[in-house]
Write a structure and sequence with these properties.
Layout lengths: L21 H9 L2 E5 L2 H4 L3 H11 L3 E5 L8 H14 L3 E6 L1 H16 L18 E5 L4
Parallel strand pairs: 1-2, 1-3, 3-4
Helix pairs in contact: 1-3, 4-5
Length: 140
């Protein structure tokens, strides 16, 4: 077995209404230009707009990438990474379920490291980006 280190997140917050506090919680960590990564199902709810409003109220410029699908392909991950480059994002926020959070983490790590998707399979092949936040939600 290959040895590895598993480091958990520095902070987990849980509670009703925390999405409205996202600007206070996440904007200081994510910086001036934030990309929210989500999917069409989440876009049919008010959650992306509420997140965007809270982050903008905190002074961040906010963009949305909403092309994630269930069991996303590498093409979706690379499209999200390219959007990160396009807006020169300082932080990434995954808003939604497992596939969304997976795409957000991997796209952020690829963008931060400059690595290619094909070179990051396996333990220790890719450093996690420091500028990623996840807001897992139930299915809309």
């Amino acid at each position: 077995m290959t040895p590895f280190t598993f480091n958990t997140t520095p902070s987990i917050r849980f509670g009703a209404g925390l999405l409205n506090s996202l600007g206070d919680i996440a904007a200081p960590l994510l910086g001036a230009r934030i990309l929210i990564i989500t999917d069409p199902g989440m876009m049919s709810t008010d959650m992306p707009a509420r997140a965007q409003k809270a982050l903008r109220h905190a002074g961040s410029e906010v963009h949305i990438f909403n092309e994630v699908s269930a069991d996303p392909s590498g093409t979706v991950v690379l499209a999200a990474r390219d959007r990160i480059y396009e807006i020169d994002a300082t932080g990434i926020l995954g808003l939604g379920g497992g596939s969304i959070v997976d795409v957000a983490k991997l796209a952020a790590a690829l963008a931060a490291s400059g690595s290619e998707l094909t070179s990051c399979h396996g333990i220790g092949k890719l450093q996690q980006a420091d500028c990623t936040c996840a807001v897992p939600t139930p299915r809309p």
